[in-house]
Structure formats: C-alpha cells, structure tokens
Specification:
The complex is a heterodimer of chains A (168) and B (503).
Chain A lengths: L4 H21 L12 H18 L41 H16 L1 H15 L4 H22 L14
Helix pairs in contact in A: 1-2, 3-4, 4-5
Chain B lengths: L1 H11 L2 H19 L5 H12 L4 H18 L1 H7 L11 H9 L3 H35 L3 H18 L4 H16 L24 H19 L18 H7 L1 H16 L5 H15 L11 H17 L1 H7 L5 H12 L8 H4 L1 H32 L4 H20 L3 H18 L4 H24 L6 H4 L1 H26 L4 H6 L1
Helix pairs in contact in B: 1-18, 2-3, 2-4, 2-18, 3-4, 3-10, 3-16, 3-19, 4-7, 4-14, 4-16, 4-18, 5-6, 5-7, 6-7, 7-12, 7-14, 7-15, 7-18, 8-9, 8-21, 8-23, 9-21, 10-19, 10-20, 10-21, 12-13, 12-14, 13-14, 19-20
Classes of the chains: A mainly alpha (168), B mainly alpha (503).
Chain lengths: 168, 503
Amino acid sequence: MRLPDSVTGSFLVVLGAASAYGGWLLPPVPGQPVGPNVFPLVIGIGLALCGLAIVFGIGHTFEEEEELIPLEDGLAAVAPPPQGKLQGKLYGLRALLPPALLLFYVVAADRLGFIITAAIIVYVTSTALGAKWKLALPLAALSPFAIHLIFGKLLRVPLPAGLLPTPW
Amino acid sequence: MLKTLLEAFALISTWEVVIAMFAASVYGLVIGSLPGLSATMATALLVPVTFYLSPIAAIATIVAASSMAIFSGDIPGALLRIPGTPASAAYADEAYAMTRKGQAELALGAGVWFSAVGGIAGVLSLMILAPPLAEVALSFSTFEYFWLALLGLMCATLVARSSPVKAIAGMFLGLLVSCIGIENPGGVPRFTFGITDLFGGIEPIPALVGVFAVAQVMRAMLTPEPPPLPRRKFGSIMAGQWMLTKKYHWQMTRGNIVGIIIGVLPGAGADMAAWVSYAMSKRFSKEPEKFGTGHVEGLVEAGASNNASIASGWVPSLLFGIPGDTIAAIAIGVLYMKGLNPGPTLFTEKASSMYAIYLMFIIANILMIPLGIAMIRVAAYILLAPRSAIMPIIMLCCAVGSFAIGNNMFGVVTVAAFGVIGYVMEANGYPVAAMVLGIVMGTMVEQAFVTSLIKSDGSILPFFERPGAAILAAMAIGALLWPVMVWVWRKVKPAQAAVATGG
C-alpha cells in the first residue's frame, strides 16, 4: 500500500480544501465574530499547505527508510514470503480482510448471534494467517465462548444471542 | 497529609483493586512481550474492561498494564531482536548483541531492574512536581491552555521518526476528525453528512483501537511470521544488577532525569525517552566504541529512561488533561469516565485519589521485579503461541470492546475505518501517534482557541501578552521551527548529520 508522496499529498490538499470550504459554509453564531466555522477553516488550510509541501518533497530527507533487520545464525528473518502462487495482485488485498470481517460483524451479529459470528471471524482470520484447520477449528469453537464469558457474563456487555444462545 | 495517605491506602487495599492490578500486570507483560502488540494497544483494549470497575481499580489496571508492557517489550528485543513495543526499539540491537555474547540474563535483568528503578523515579517526580505545578496551573487562562495544547501537539510531531511535514499533516488529520459532531462552539452539526451516528463525534478509544490493533492485524496479513524463540535455560537474572547499579549509577540517574523531563513534556513519551537516552549514553560514555557490540551501559540508561517517562507522563495528563503520550491519552479518557476530571483542582479536592495513584505506581513497579523475572522464564513458551492463534482473539476483542464502549455497532464501524486509515498512514510514513493525539486533544484545542479569540476580540496580541502564555508560545513555536533548524544545521555541517538525527 505504499503510494507515491505526490498521491497522498494531493489527497491531503483536496481534503484540506474541502474541509476549509465545508467550515466556511457553516452558519456563524449570531453576534459573535468566531463560531464553529473558524477551526475547520484553519485546519483545512493547514492540511492543504502540508499536502502541498509533501507533493513538493519538503521534509523527505527526514524520513528513515525502514531497515529490514537480518538475523544471524541462519535464522532468516527476511525469508521470502512462502506460497509463491498467492503472490499475485490480490495478495495485497489480504490486508483488507480484518476491517471487512469487522464490518461483517456489524451486519451479521444481530441476526446470527455473537457466538456464530465470532467463530466465523476467528476461523477466517486464523486460516488467513496460515493456521491449519487443526488449530483454527478448535480455536474458532472455543474462543467465542471464552470472550463471551468475559465480556457478556462478567462485564455484562449486551452481546446479541441470535441463533445460538449461550448456556449461561 | 498522613490522613490522606491513610485514605489512599484504604482506597487501594480492596480485593477488587488487588485482583485488577495483578491481572492487568500479567496481561500487560504478555501483550508487551508479543512482537507487534504495543503497550498502547494493550492499554486501549483494556478500556472496555475498566468501564465495569470502580474508579481506583480502573486506574490501577491502566497503571499496571502500561508499566509492565513497556518493560516486557524488552524481552523479545533481547531474545529475537524484534522489539515488543516501540519504546524498546532504541536498544533492541544492543540487547540482542548481548544475548549473542551469552549475556541474555544480564541484559534482561537490567531491563527488569532499571525499568523498576526508573518507574519509581518517575513516580517520585510525579509526587514532587505535580502539586507545585498545580498551583501554577490554577492561574492559567485559555490563552495558556491553547499554547500548552499546541505545544503538546508539536512535541508529538517531533517524536515521530519521520518527515515532520507528514507528522504535522497527521496531526491536522486528527484535529479534523475531532471536528466531526455537534460538540462545537456553535452547537451545529459539523461534517456529519446527515448521519446521526456522527452527531456525537468520533470516540477516541475506538479510533485508537483501530489505529493500533486492527492496523496491526492488517500488517500481519502481509508480513511473514517472526521466527520462534529458541528455548533456553536462564541462569540467575538478578545477579550482577546491584554491581551494575553501582557502576552506572550516574548513567541511571541521567536516564531517569531525561525520562522524567520527556515524560512531563506534553506529547512526548516513552519511545522518545528511550531514543534520546540511548543516544546520550553513547555520546557521554567513556567507552563509546563498545556500543552496538553488546554493551550494557546504554541499556541501563535507556531502560531507566523509558519507564520513568511512563509515570511522569501523567503530570500533564492529570494537571491539564493534555496527554504526555498515547498511553496517557487513553488514561485521560478513563479519568473523565470515572469522574476524576483532570485539572489542577484534582490535587486539592481528590487528594486521596491522587495518593492512591502514586501508591499504585510504586506497587506496580515493585511488583514488576518478581513478575518480570517469572515472565522472562516463561517467555519462551508464550512466544511459542503462533500469530494465527493470537490475532483472531485480538480481532474479537476489537469488535466486542468497541461495541461495549457505547453499546452500539457504530463503534465497530469506527474501529474498522480507523484500522484502514492507520494502516494506510503507517505504510506511507505518516505517524499515527500524531493523529491520535490530534483526535484526543482536538475539542480542547478548539475550545481554548475559540474562547481566546472571542476574548481577544479577534486580535492576536493577547495570545502573547501574559507571561505564561508568552513562554509557552515561544516553546510551541520553537518546537515548530525545530525541524527547520535541524535542516539548516545539516546543510551547514553535513558531517554531523548523524548526531542531529539522534535528537
């Protein structure tokens, strides 16, 4: 997800300009010179200026390139990522899995209930990180109950029961 | 004084506090020792739990978990050369070099011992500094608060080991996020786009969890698993520590003092303290050539420093509600939630609670020695747990925890969104800590800024007229111009560039 500075900088310019304009449009408090519009205006302008500076590469010299630390004694820390066939364009999209699963929780938890939704999330995350089913399946079966015990039972968070109510 | 102290003892000697503290310590040690899971994340995931505890027990969990996590970040740093928390990154190389020389016990022991000493020094500074500063703070008007908040934000951008422009941009992003909602001077819906869930604004805690926890799970999806820890037998861990204390007492004290100063500065925390102290130690050492080859001196100074900053980071938090670092930012949220609103009056009206906080810090740091030794011995087993078993649990905690904060699903959406934002920012060199502090402090900055503007009738002059305001303004502007000065300095003396980056 490494984007060129010109892209992120331009995005900030647009965002800053939009928020400055949005702030400008807000109604002022009658009889007062400053209201809710001033702060977004200042921030928006600041953000746009920073964006411009980034586009032009100001301050780039301060950035430290991430160094990969090689381990010695044959423990290759920078081992080439395994599963060569997964290394396609889609490989980078795996990073979007966690937020997607959280949105899945938002949509599904009320209907399916906490236990089932949580089990699915655990199973998918675990498998995506390379776990075999021998680990992922028991984990998906047990951890939702443990979390439910802590949050639902002890801390009384109203977790949805859904299709599969917990025994307690 | 004695009466308040006794009251404080009574406050913390309940079973709830004792159990909460012990459990949080173990939790902090475990999370801190897992590479990639930082002390901030450990603390953020604790917040939903603190909802259901009494005020003192809630603060006890935060104090214990954060102190322990900062120390236990040293463990994978020394054994695997992967710092468990960013605050250990400064000396992970050095500690790993010691392990390879067969001095793992000495390196880890120094981690425990000097962390505990540093932590206690930090508490003492909190006890000594806070009351007189509270006197000063009572005379502060919105002008001073504005500059102080700005100073905090600017320090946060300095800490970042990245481009200062990007750090400032990150800070602005955070402030922009804090604009959302109807909590503004006019009470009008601002940037809500007609979505009712946005009327209340973005809660800092789900944003923090997203940026620190979800983004970490996202990164794990694309990075190879860290190597397993070679199992090993440890000799005596505390052996030789007393000798080190005597030999390096001056380095230790200097580390403590630097840590305290950096902690007290709003916005700068344990990471910066460790980097600065390690650099100082190397600079003033009698044998600088040994650094990097497994020399314990830098470890002593930086270890003493980062834990000292944890406690002293509470000074600006308790006095002004301005967080000393991201952990303190979470702590402030908890303080507000528990009716201990930060401010100078806290020290007069809730003195016993303050003493209870000091006592808990001292106890946590003493507890760190036995628990830390136990943790070092079992670390090899804990680090055996594969990432594919830990990350799913973290995911569940993110979902449930963010739901629990407001009992609505919008919290979970916020966490997911900030996970993506944090991931993209981190990948492109935008420091997320600056954004987080922007989100936490945004409302306060705006309030101080707008009130000051109204009082001054649109003029800029009153922002500098009061002596306190003038000093703070000079500091804040100095912090803003600092990168420029470093840049000029580097142009003038390219040979000394390496030294300049160290600060």
